[in-house]
Amino acid sequence: MFNFFKKLFDQVVPGFKAALPILLIIIFVLLNVAIWWAGPWLSIHGEHPLASVMARAVTSIIFSLTCLALWGLGQWRALKTFQEIAAAPSYWHLRDYILQTLTYLETERLLITGDVAPFQFSRMLSANRSSIFRPVH
Predict the structure, then answer these.
(1) How much is the pTM?
(2) In whole angstroms, what is the distance from residue 96 CA to residue 128 CA?
């Protein structure tokens, strides 16, 4: 039973993640509309806190600024993550040096042991060159 819900959840999550931005915008718009449309009808212990236009405007402004602040915080965190990734040391530039060293060492080993002729080794290395080292993303 648990596996059924896990499979269902795994199928739904990618679509939900893709639709999340538009859903958040729709929720934002609908809540602002609800503040203005249903505000005068809202009753808490016999009081109508959103009856006046000024109260609805202040509530709508506070809600909008809170949403914008949360969105900005999310953007700031994403930018900070990208900056940390960009500032991290990259060893990708060492790839060619490592490949040359490995080629030299393997060629020496093959020539000494007589396992493979040098032209066969260079053909094997060129065929596998792209799969030896791959950048990590």
Answers:
(1) 0.56
(2) 14
> Looking up tokens 């080629």, which residue turns up?
103
**What was the pLDDT predicted at 119?**
54
Q: Is the CB of residue 50 less than 8 Å from the CB of residue 56? A: yes
Scan for tokens 């053909």, then name that residue.
123
| 118-132 and 95-113 helices, crossing angle to 10° | 150
Q: What is the sign, positive or negative, of the torsion defined by CA atoms of 89, 92, 93, 98?
A: positive
- Letter for the amino acid at 51? A
Distance CA 79, CA 73 (A): 10
**Residue 62: which of 37, 31, 38 has the closest Cα?**
31
Q: Residue 56: exposed, middle, or buried by beta-carbon count in 10 A (0-12, 13-18, 19+)?
A: buried
Residue 106, Cβ neighbours under 10 Å: how many?
A: 14
Q: Would you state the pLDDT for residue 17?
A: 82
